[in-house]
Specification:
Layout lengths: L4 H22 L3 E6 L19 E5 L4 H7 L6 E4 L3 H12 L3 E4 L6 H13 L3 E5 L13 H9 L5 E2 L1 E4 L2 E3 L7 E3 L4 E6 L8 H22 L1
Parallel strand pairs: 1-10, 2-5, 2-6, 3-4, 3-5
Antiparallel strand pairs: 7-10, 8-9
């Protein structure tokens, strides 16, 4: 990509400051996990980052800041759009120990999916902001399913991170910035089949309900 002088200056300044902000804010947060019920005799649902790769997970774009802190330094591959804003995000998450794959459904999608498949086959955990990069909010796109089918993944995992107190930006996704010393509740539904986008959508909706219910009860 070609960047203007102003953009190059911003790229040199904003990602390091944002990564520092995420580390400092994240150090004040508490994390709590809640899980969907499982049938008698079935194994419990594991917390996503405790599962070694390769795996495929999906989450909503608005929770990216919290997830960037909790899941830092794990080499997780995440798809980031090929735009200037995406470049800012990619450089930030790389400073936090993620593997940024550049592309989206509208720009560089086929190449990005191939690179995500390469990351999966190299035993990376792979994560998608299922409604990114520009929405509609909370509407899952087919990226996770496409990768799972391409790589013959056995399942897709979903989750949601709900802060007890947060600022919501006036953006398309109502991006959430947790307030310092808040508790973030992660909702973990059961894993879903790798070839069913409707079930990915349902699992993400369930993850929101799980985390919001517990967060409200404890606030």
């Amino acid at each position: 990509m070609h960047f203007t002088r102003k953009q190059r200056i911003l790229l040199a300044i904003i990602p390091p400051l944002t990564a520092l902000f995420i580390r400092v804010l994240g150090a004040t947060l508490r994390y709590r996990d809640v899980f969907a019920p499982v049938a008698p005799g079935d194994p419990p649902i594991p917390i996503g980052h405790t599962i070694p790769g390769p795996v495929v997970f999906a989450f909503w774009h608005q929770t990216m800041l919290t997830c960037a802190h909790r899941f830092r330094n794990l080499g997780i591959a995440i798809l980031i759009s090929r735009s200037f804003d995406g470049e800012l995000i990619a450089r930030t998450v790389e400073l936090l120990g993620f593997l940024a794959i550049r592309g989206s459904s509208s720009r560089g999608g086929a190449t990005a999916l191939k690179q995500m498949a390469e990351a999966y086959n190299a035993n990376h955990r792979c994560a998608f902001t299922a409604d990114g990069p520009r929405g509609p909010a909370h509407i899952a796109k087919p990226g996770p399913v496409q990768l799972a089918e391409l790589c013959h993944a056995p399942w897709i995992g979903c989750y949601h991170a709900q802060p007890s107190r947060f600022w919501a930006l006036k953006s398309w996704d109502s991006f959430m910035i947790p307030k310092p010393f808040s508790t973030v509740t992660f909702g973990w539904p059961q894993h879903v089949p790798p070839n069913d986008l409707a079930k990915v959508q349902a699992a993400l909706d369930e993850a929101v309900q799980l985390s919001q219910k517990v967060s409200k009860l404890s606030s």
